[in-house]
Amino acid sequence: MDDSRAFAPASIGTIGQPKTALDTPVLLVDLDVMEANTAKMAKTFRDRKVNWRPHTKGMKIPALAHRLIKAGAIGVTCAKLGEAEVMAAGGIGDILVANQIVGPVKIQRLVNLQRHSDVMVAVDNWDNIQEIDAAARAIGVRVRVLIEVNTGMNRAGTLPGQPAVDLAKKVAALKGVKLAGLMTWEAHTLRITDPAEKKTAIEGAIRTFLGTVKSCRDAGVEIGIVSCGGTGTYWITATQKGITEVQAGGGIFGDVLYRKSFGVDHPYAMTVLAQVTSRPDPARIICDAGKKTMTGDAAMPEPIGLPKITGMALSAEHTIVNLAEPSDTPRIGEKVEFVVGYTDTTLNLHDELVGIRKGKVEVVWAILGRGKLK
């Protein structure tokens, strides 16, 4: 791996400092908690004999991907081709882009990337597949693809059953692409709060998916990879016989959304450290971290160590915290730490992720995949 840009030189001088000495706002990860979450996920997949291909859309740091591979992952999943390019440049050799790569510009980037890393893509459209096939043959490479099957999320994906079988037959005959398998994402089950109901819904989606896998195989189409799952479903999805790999990744951090809305039993590892900049009255705290620092779209961040609050609001540059009872603390200039509401939409706002162990800075990573939206 080329480590030349793995760390953030501008912040190297902070190594060894207590986190409370850091300038704010700053994105933090507790390394002990992250490593424990990683070990928990890796053990789940190892015990179930299911491969782990963690999603990096909420990480964007090749150094973290290497840590997960060291823990047992077989490769990574990316949301965008630009993220895959960053991971490939960082030495990751087995990558799935779990979305469709469409248009001549992106397809040319995809086929050229094959010379640097084995990058699979999700497909669901015959015209798009033919375009990838032609571009790959033109430069003498072959692109592995997974046919995406819609099992209820109703975003992308071909219909299960015969439509997927028909597409798989056509893909299997091509020379510039190789049908590596099928994938789905049972995301429509994420917000089901009753554990038994959620388990039933996940099992139903996976049963539909595996039925399509069987139909393809019965039709003589070789299906190797059977990929699905995410952090919000992984502990159930991994138990479904016939699944070969799961794409869960964000669980290494934990956040308010995963824990409180998706039922993910992981402690929080990612936080934002902010500073109190104003105390207009004893029941109101103003901090220097707003929507440009941490998002509240999927779930609001939660302050750590404050007295009971009655509400919180984010503006562009500020967080307003309303206390249930007046308090002289925290004072102006003191630090307040917030658990991240949703890591995927918070990490991409920052240039650096600061790794903390036992209250002190151990490592600072440059977020190399930030802004890679194409």
CATH topology of the largest domain: TIM Barrel
Overall 3D geometry?
elongated
Uncertain segments of ≥5 residues (pLDDT<50)? 1-5
Mean pLDDT: 96
What letter string, H or E per element, gives the SSE order? EHEHEHEHEHEHEHEHEHEEEEEEHEE
CATH architectural label of the largest domain: Alpha-Beta Barrel
Task: Tell me the number of strands.
Answer: 17
Q: What does the radius of gyration come to? A: 22 Å
**DSSP helix fraction:** 25-40%
In total, how many domains does the architecture comprise? 2
CATH superfamily of the largest domain: Alanine racemase
How is the main sheet built? 9 strands, mixed
Percentage of residues in strands: 15-25%
Short description, anyone?
By secondary structure, this protein is of the alpha/beta class. Helices cover 29% and strands 23% of the residues.
Structure commentary:
The chain is of the alpha/beta class and 374 residues long. The protein folds into two domains: 9-28 and 266-366, D-serine dehydratase-like domain (Lyase, Ornithine Decarboxylase, Chain A, domain 1), CATH 2.40.37; 32-252, Alpha-Beta Barrel (TIM Barrel), CATH 3.20.20. 29% of the residues lie in helices and 23% in strands. The chain is built from ten helices and 17 strands. The radius of gyration is 22 Å and the shape is elongated. Residues 1-5 have low confidence and may be disordered.
Task: Furnish the topology, listing elements before pairings.
Elements: E1 26-30, H1 31-48, E2 51-52, H2 62-71, E3 76-78, H3 81-89, E4 94-97, H4 104-113, E5 118-123, H5 126-139, E6 143-148, H6 162-172, E7 177-183, H7 195-218, E8 225-228, H8 234-237, E9 245-246, H9 256-261, E10 270-281, E11 284-287, E12 302-304, E13 309-314, E14 319-323, E15 335-339, H10 344-347, E16 352-357, E17 360-366
Parallel strand pairs: 1-16, 2-9, 3-4, 4-5, 5-6, 6-7, 7-8, 8-9
Antiparallel strand pairs: 1-10, 10-11, 10-15, 11-14, 12-15, 13-14, 16-17
Helix pairs in contact: 4-5, 6-7
